[in-house]
Amino acid sequence: MGPRGHQSFLLLLALCATGAFVSATVLSGLPTTVSVMESAGPGTIIVEFNLTCQNETSIPTPVFTLQSTPPTYFFNQPIVAHRASPTPHYSVQITLSPSAALDARQVNQYTLTLEATCPGETPAKGQLFVQVHTVDGPPQCMARFASQVGELVQVSEDVAPLMPIYTVVLQRPASGLRFTIKDNDTPLTIDRAGQVLAPGSGFIPAHAGQVFRLQILVTDRSGRNCSGAVTVTVLPVHRPHINFMAAWRSVAVLEKRGAMQLVTQVQAQGNNVRYEIIAPAAHGLYTIDTVTGELRNTYELDLQRSPEVAHTQLLVRAYDMLHPSDSDIICLNITVLPTNTLAPHCSPAVLLAQVPEDTPIGWTLAMLTCTDPDASNSSLRYQVEGDQHSRYSFRMQGPQLQVNETLDYDSAASARFQYVATILVTDNGQPPLSTHVPVLVTVTPKNEHSPACPARAMFSVPEDAAFGDTVGRVNGTDLDYPFDNIEYSIAGGTGASPPAFYIGPRTGEIHVLSPLDYESKQVYILTVQLRDMANDADPHHQHSALCDITIQVQDTNDQPPRCMPPFQEFFIYSTRDPSLPLAQLQCSDKDESTMLPLTYTLVGGNTNGHFRLAGSTLLHSAFSDPPDSIHEPRTFELLVEVTDSFSAPRHSTTATLVVHVTPWATATPSTTTIHTTLRKGPLVVTHTEWFWAPSPWFVVVLTVSVALLLVALAWLAWKLLCRALSDPHVAKNNTAPGVLDKETGRASILSLQEQFDGRAQDPITGQDYLFNSSTGARRWV
């Protein structure tokens, strides 16, 4: 049993011991390492082993996966064949693919990972190391190169010297090879890399069309060799012949230009072209550059001194410098023209014109009178020059300057009210001479269009807008230049009295003039008049238009809520049921912009928290007094703040609710002989709460000042004490009112009278007490 069979057996025992048996696929006969020569070709069997499936009842087909490290396509997927004897199993083969080209110098080992799975069984995995070994064999030439015919190569005769034209390729790369050409009687050579090279000086014309057959021998260091043949065909290159495009040419040249001036230049097609004058043989008037073909006059041509130079005929020959027989001839007819010396004269010398922008096309603006001093019968040509706009706006009809297109003063691209151009007058002399006549055309405006109302004719403004605030802008348009030069005014409408708005006459901006109130008026319709300005040469020629502008007033939160009535007074008993509403506030807000409900808040007078608000409803809690206090009427002055919004702008008002609480109790007279008559009127006790939050610096200063004051008082008391102790009369009579008398042990009656101003009896306990009506202080007797 192999290692993997032993492992499978142990796995089977473990599964049986645990009581769970799972079928497992078994690989048998798979070696760990195999060797293969790098010369192995496609289809070579690398390894062969068996695979056994535990579940053989349904003859399952196993599934194989093969992965290679490093990745390569040199190995085929496993070939699986079912074998029924001696026991059912599968025979598996791994072979080389058609693209296999093993090279031990590149990769000498491949790791193949196999995974086989039978249906319903646990997969079996295996690993195979494929070692590639080098083959020390003789060089192997490619089949076509080593055949009897050999390789066929075609090369142009103008190929560059030593240019590679063929490379010997072997079936298996090797080093240390030597390439030689047997019976080398050809100009071709071969280098160490097996490249066949062109001749060192290139192919000569005699090689064109020749065929060279090379027998090449490839030898390694051991003397082993292979050979092959290469047939090289040299293709001739077609060379263009010398040729002129035309057989003759006419040339006109002016007289009196000086010597050696360029007359013309001839050019012929071909290689290594040279030029010469072949007729007349002894002319002496002209010379030609043999390389460039430039023809020049040898001396100044003057028709008055040499009238015979007026017409000359030359034959110029072009030839190949390397092949002089390859040539062509051209005939040159040279005419010397008299020189034109005076330009045309025109009147007037400057043209000035002023026309309105609605001048029709074809209208004649001015007429020139021009003559040629050199020839009375000379024909003159007239042409308008200038920028593109001016050149196409006018035309010349003979000597007449006419309008060629509409002179639009209101051009959207650029307002053109002045056109600057030049009339070019040219004669037919040689060289042609010209006279320039400046032209200045001024276009005057014409009020052709009426102002147009804006597309947006509705604005909105908040009712709390201040004086001068901008409501919107009336953007009227006018197609006349200057564009949109409009004066605005309010011509009428459903405005208020006094007017609620005014408009900027030049800007068209509508501003607030008087206060607005959404609750009294929500919509204003204004009639705005638009009048164009400075659009015509006549300042009185104006157009106008009326536009209806709608202004909607937006509601803003500018009024506080109102409560009706703002002051309410209630009288209740202290035993009133707390679940019953005490009061209902009736408050409202005229602003429509206030979308949230009004909020009600108790901000004052709610002593001891006896009252609360549920929306706009006032509720109270049960009233209770200490058992030792007297039940007397009390009055609560409640302040309710009513707010219309949670965010700015926010307004509020305060409603006042005065609640008189009368205690519901019966006073029982005491059995003692002392009777106290209580006042039937209500006892009003006013309790003031102060709240003060001083700044930190003030607290520090106050603390230091109090400390200094205490020190000063202590020092003063010490001084007074020392003086009192020194004076026996003062110490004897120094008894302060309201303190215990050292002789009687009772409180001074004077001090009690100063602190309390009344005496009463508690109706519940019957105990007497003194009270101070101003402070509410009590002292039980």
Notes on the structure:
The chain has 781 residues and is mostly beta strands. It is built from six helices and 52 strands. The strands form 16 sheets. It has a four-stranded antiparallel sheet. A hairpin with a 5-residue loop joins β14 and β15 (225-235). Mean pLDDT is 81; it is low at 1-22, 666-685 and 730-754.
- What are the low-pLDDT stretches, counting only 5+ consecutive residues below 50? 1-22, 666-685, 730-754
The general outline is flat
Strand count, sense and barrel status of the largest sheet are:
4 strands, antiparallel
The order of strands across the largest sheet is 1-3-6-5
DSSP strand count: 52
Terminus-to-terminus distance: 122 Å
Treating each run of at least 4 consecutive H or I residues as one helix, how many helices? 6
Q: What does the average pLDDT come to?
A: 81
Portion in strands: 35-45%
Query: What's the Cα radius of gyration?
Result: 64 Å
Helix content: under 10%
The structure class reads mainly beta
